[in-house]
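In practice, a research group might receive sequence data for several interacting partners and want a quick structural hypothesis before committing to experiments. The following worked case mirrors that situation: the sequences arrive first, and a predicted assembly follows.
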Amino acid sequence: MDNFLKMTSFTTNILTWYQSNQRDLPWRAEKDPYLVWISEIILQQTQVKQGLPYYLRFTKAFPDVYALARASEQEVLKLWQGLGYYSRARNLHAAARDVVERLKGQMPETKKDLLLLKGIGPYTAAAIASISFNEPVAVVDGNVYRLLSRYFASSLPIDSTEGRKHFDALAHQLLSKSRPADFNQAMMDMGAMICTPAQPKCNDCPVAAECQARLLSQQALFPVKSKTTRKRNRYFNYLIAENKGQLFMSQRQKKDIWKGLYEFPLIESEKELTRAEICQMVDSVSQASMTTSLMSETKHLLTHQNIFIRFYKIQQDLHLNGPINRAFDGARLLAKSELIHLPVPKPIETALKRIL
DNA sequence: CACACGTGGGT
DNA sequence: TACCCAAGTGT
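A structural hypothesis for the assembly, expressed as tokens:
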């Protein structure tokens, strides 16, 4: 079979498989560009199982771009709480206001114009343009890299510039120009349901017959990645200071994890600190004998770092006369009823549940 | 352009 | 346990 016929059969087989195996997902019914947009942002680096409940709550609260633009950033972050990658929420909110104010509420209809919006990169722009407006552009995400690298048994690293260009070109060659929406969603469903990272279901795969990795029994060797990850440890010592039913809380501002979210006053260190050292640090600034007690500790595993978290309860109410420690700079005393509305990181959410 | 950004699930 | 992975983007 020559290359042209092989490519044609790949596209045909993928489309046919999709017709009878596609997942029933809420944003697929109307292809409303706003709903597709929300779904694509939520599903970045996130599996459907994890993102779906967020999509349902989010679109119920903000059914259209105007509702989202009207909301405050904090309201948007609160609905995003627990999903991670919070810049997605902040960018989405900013872009919604951009669409309402600059584009009179009309979503851009081409990949080129969609790319101008905050938080929309090559993948998301192609997804919205193809799914909602039938533009013949291929989506190239982790699913597509994995599927194509296996199908062609290509050892080009998917995290290299050359590899990305190669698979992008391949995806565009294989793309159905008449049914880009179906083809792109078929590729993603294939990657999520059949050509999975571990133990792919090759027996159910519509293109298994020509899959080079399968012919070599080397599915597990693809895709190839060149970079290695190394982790650093961080130690977060949170000070829980309660005063007359109120709690000290501060908002993370720096260009760092959990930007914009709220937390307890924090002493961060590169190495593990003992309870005595924490006490000493607090006492030296407050010039008083402050005692703390360790409430609990958790471990947070991230892509590039491990965060070891300890929660200390401040025993005495000696912080009445202002900040007792640099950790309390910028901290505000908030009533428990207010805390419920603050967006907080997962570990803080867990701690608050115990306290409140 | 290498790196940071979250959380949950799998091996 | 300690990794890896998941519908990527911004800087």
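Before designing any experiment, note the following. The mean pLDDT of chain A is 90. Residues 45-47, 49-50, 82-88, 161, 197-199, 227, 255-259, 300-305, 345-346 of chain A lie near DNA strand B (CB under 10 Å from a C1').
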